[in-house]
């Protein structure tokens, strides 16, 4: 059914003088809100939800939230907003940590209703294939659909309940990235609505400038409404290894060796504190894919030459999806303990491999368990620069950059601690930047426009040009603070 579907009020309009929305009965009359297949909410829980995110640090209340019934709704509302200079932000699962998907007094477009997963298409000499999905599809559902056909996206984030549009707008890094790059490097085509409200398909050969400005483009040029993803063959089972290390140098050297040799299909690492609070418990997490992707895992071959502590090695054979979804039980426990609702002033950095020992050593020396918080985690693992091909995913100029993530938690009402941790994030970022490192912009590093310009470096001028072309009125995603 088409028609004006405005929940929470009869009609809604935009006041160009106060730059805010007004509702008939409480303010000004409506002019020209388009007919919609979905719903435009102007009050209540949809707005409360859109004024929060996984960080629970920033709260900016939109004037309206669109739950689109179709891509046409996104086109219509973006055009409506564009004509009136109303800011717009798409929101997937709201797992950003610093208000990136929030927009004070503007429109939030929820992508969750755009979650269709198309037919899985086998094809390609290597036995892979492709699938076209809505931007609001979660990676867990994409994985399930592909695995039913013996296929899989090549790269996953650690947590699967993130939207496809949400991770493609940042990059999407995980343990498979040392072999396949980021999720953005595995996209064949995008279906987008530009900031000017034009729906376009783009790919490496069609509207290439838009394609490159959208992948890892932090929503600045277009809203992703659909994506065609490359698939590869999926293993049926995997062997999962946890390899403990006593010292940072050996841990990093073995990670680098494994990244270079690509012995494992998945490679990450974690660092925990010992009883004294020192972050010196290093564990490589590595996974070998079984048939039909690889041979049956052979411990002797896979672990040859590694210098982990022999005691404490853990191995487990798992169905492939159980491995991908391995965080689900921990997330359930964090929710149960109330820690999922804690503030998450996260720090995500990309370190140049040539300086990783010094940088990680310095950052870990300065870290206390209180700085990480209950249920918090420290990750450190290598990538390979040659596979990171998306220009806007800014990685250090180094053959083996490392992702270092300090995934902090703090009670949300303890704003003094949150502020201290945000300042610590900034300080860590500056330490890393001084050696050619970057931030991976999913966390909470205080960042200004000059920082962004420096962050994008040689990619800045094309990015700014794409912004002028595709979002000439600059309405999209102000929460990133880039333009
Ligand atoms: C528990 C947890 C684990 C994580 N693990 C990883 C990991 O292993 N690897 C990794 O790389 N990242 C990881 N992340 C970070 C995550 O990838 C990003 O925060 C991602 O953007 C979240 O997706 P979302 O759907 O929640 O996006 P949202 O938080 O809703 O949006 C994030 C940003 O993307 C924009 N955006 C959202 N949808 C679209 C769209 N359709 N088109 C254009 N722009 C859009 C928003 O406006 C906003 O600026 C993790 C986050 C959490 C909370």
UniProtKB/TrEMBL annotation:
Keywords: FAD, Flavoprotein, Oxidoreductase. GO terms for molecular function: cytokinin dehydrogenase activity; FAD binding. Pfam families: Cytokin-bind (PF09265), FAD_binding_4 (PF01565). Signal peptide: none annotated. Its cofactor is FAD. Residues 58-234 form the FAD-binding PCMH-type domain. Coiled coil: none annotated. GO terms for biological process: cytokinin metabolic process. Belongs to the oxygen-dependent FAD-linked oxidoreductase family. This is FAD-binding PCMH-type domain-containing protein.
């Amino acid at each position: 059914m088409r028609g004006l579907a405005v929940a929470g009020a009869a009609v809604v309009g935009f006041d160009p003088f106060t730059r805010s929305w007004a509702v008939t009965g409480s303010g000004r009359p409506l002019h020209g809100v388009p007919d919609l297949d979905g719903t435009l909410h102007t009050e209540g829980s949809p707005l409360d939800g859109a004024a929060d995110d996984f960080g629970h640090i920033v709260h900016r209340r939109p004037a309206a939230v669109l739950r689109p019934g179709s891509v046409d709704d996104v086109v219509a509302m973006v055009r409506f907003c564009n004509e009136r200079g109303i800011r717009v932000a798409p929101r997937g699962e709201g797992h950003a940590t610093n208000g990136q998907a929030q927009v004070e007094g503007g429109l939030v477009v929820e992508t969750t209703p755009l979650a269709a997963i198309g037919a899985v298409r086998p094809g390609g000499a290597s036995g892979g294939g492709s699938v076209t999905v809505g931007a609001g599809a979660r990676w867990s559902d994409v994985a399930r659909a592909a695995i039913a056909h013996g296929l899989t996206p090549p790269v996953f984030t650690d947590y699967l309940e993130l939207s496809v549009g949400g991770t493609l707008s940042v990059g999407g890094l995980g343990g498979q990235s040392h072999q396949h790059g980021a999720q953005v490097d595995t996209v064949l085509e995008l279906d987008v609505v530009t900031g000017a409200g034009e729906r376009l398909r783009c790919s490496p050969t069609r509207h290439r400038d838009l394609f490159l400005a959208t992948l890892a483009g932090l929503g600045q040029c277009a809203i992703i409404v659909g994506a065609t993803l490359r698939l590869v063959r999926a293993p049926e089972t995997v062997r999962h290894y946890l390899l403990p290390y006593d010292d940072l140098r050996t841990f990093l050297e073995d990670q680098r060796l494994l990244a270079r040799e690509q012995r494992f299909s998945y490679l990450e690492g974690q660092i925990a504190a010992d009883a004294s609070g020192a972050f010196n418990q290093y564990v490589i997490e590595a996974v070998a894919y079984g048939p039909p992707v690889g041979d049956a895992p052979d411990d002797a071959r896979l672990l040859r030459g590694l210098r982990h502590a022999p005691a404490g090695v853990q191995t487990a054979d798992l169905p492939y999806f159980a491995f991908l979804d391995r965080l689900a039980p921990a997330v359930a426990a964090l929710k149960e303990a109330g820690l999922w609702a804690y503030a998450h002033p996260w720090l995500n950095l990309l370190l140049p491999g040539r300086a990783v020992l010094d940088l990680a050593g310095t950052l870990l020396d300065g870290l206390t368990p209180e700085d990480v918080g209950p249920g918090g985690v420290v990750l450190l693992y290598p990538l390979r620069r040659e596979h990171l091909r998306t220009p806007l995913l800014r990685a250090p100029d180094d053959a083996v950059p490392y992702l270092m993530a300090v995934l902090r938690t703090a009670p949300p009402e303890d704003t003094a601690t949150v502020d201290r941790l945000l300042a610590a994030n900034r300080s860590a970022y500056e330490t890393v930047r001084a050696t050619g490192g970057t931030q991976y912009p999913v966390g909470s590093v205080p960042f200004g426009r000059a920082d962004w310009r420096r962050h994008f470096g040689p990619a800045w001028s094309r990015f700014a040009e794409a912004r002028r072309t595709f979002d000439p009125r600059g309405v999209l995603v102000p929460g990133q603070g880039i333009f």
